[in-house]
Amino acid sequence: MNNHSSVPEVQDTSSTSALIVGSVALFTDMLVVGLAVPVLPLLPSVLDAGPAATGILFASYAIAMVLATFVAGRTVDRYGPKTPLLIGLIGLAIATLLFAMGGPYFLLFVARFAQGVAGGMSWVASLSLIAATTPMEKRGQAMGIALSTITLGVLIGPIVAGFMVEHFNTSAPFLLAAGVAFADGLLRIILVKGTPRVTDDTGGPLSVLRVSGSTSIATTILVGAAVLASLEPVLPVHLNTSALNIGLLFALASLAGIVANPAVGYYVGKVSSRLLTASGLLFITIALFIVGFANELWQTSVGMIFLGLSSAFLLAPATTLIADQGYKAKPSTLGGSFALYNLAYASGLAIGPLLTGLGVQQLGFSMALVVAAVVLALLGGFSLSRLPSGVAANS
Asked: Any transmembrane segments, and where (predicted)?
């Protein structure tokens, strides 16, 4: 093997540079995801395709992301993180340019799928890069910082897209995204000088999944991701309001989650995680019922706030718990924990749009959200009994 050659390469890329590159890569990916929210459902070819096809379009990102994750893992193992980081960059550039062109549904589908491939490559490579350059005792904090940029991208994307559509056209947000991707690419090329590999964290997501309670935690993460994603393909068409208003509504949900996250995180370890998660499932039901039957924009806004709260109450405890499961795995692994987190999160991003897209086409908007609320609450509820009640003392 080339163990000797890999040691200086790890030292070439500092932990600070790795954290910057990884965080910016995750932010850029989710920024483009957020930019699509108030734009894609309102494009003529997507409107003509119907709610079910819109749900499939939004879900295709996550499906491609899951598929790419497995390929990315092998690529990182063989070549290190830099190669999949550059592959992800190329995929993102192709996706943004295709989105900017608009055009027929199938072309948008190709763009969304390419975006998912780019996301899968970038997520795995970014977290692997951080893991390879950060000591184990500081790795959890670094991963947490990187993952927080996901929420930031989702927060900013819809607002920026709504504003640019109002003042320019539907291509403008994606041309901006192409510029951000270019800057992101320069960081990946300049700051990632070597191709480091993780040598002290050999366990994968399956080793974490075998630990008792991990399936329940992964299910909770899936539900937390599915909630907001479930409204992305259907709410813009239902409200028939401006792209800016749509962007602000989704940003409001993300902002509520950002504000609630530190508060919920403070109580993780002090209050039963089952209680926090049960509260999140209750907020899901409240949120989707309010949005489903809202007659005024302010009522929808209230529902979106509850939606953001539900995300915080589900994902903040689950993120801590999934890391704790990694310490219990054999061999111990933090990288495997976050790989499982990514897979569960991406699965939620796929299930949410499919559930509501098909539901709206068959049942109408209000009843589709009722069904989604029941399905997601039951899915999360079934996992509660086996969810770890708290965080164990670990190393």
From this structure: 18-40, 52-73, 85-107, 113-132, 144-165, 171-191, 211-231, 243-268, 275-294, 300-322, 334-356, 362-382
| 263 and 309 share one domain | yes
Contact 211, 328 (CB under 8 A): yes
Q: How far apart are CA 373 and CA 296, in angstroms?
A: 20
Q: Is the peptide bond before 233 cis (omega within 30 degrees of 0)?
A: no
DSSP-derived letter for residue 271 is: B
What is the span of the domain harbouring residue 217? 201-395
Q: How far is CA 94 from CA 44, 76, 107, 145, 218, in A?
A: 21, 22, 11, 28, 31
Task: Give the span between the Cα atoms of 186 and 163, in whole angstroms.
Answer: 27
* Helical (H) or strand (E) element with 13: none
Q: Is residue 235 part of a domain?
A: yes
Q: 209 and 196 in one domain?
A: no
Cα separation, 59 vs 353, in Å, equals 6
Candidates 197, 246, 186; CA nearest to 37 is: 246
List pLDDT tens digits, range 51-84: 999 999 999 999 998 888 878 777 777 777 778 8
pTM of the model: 0.83
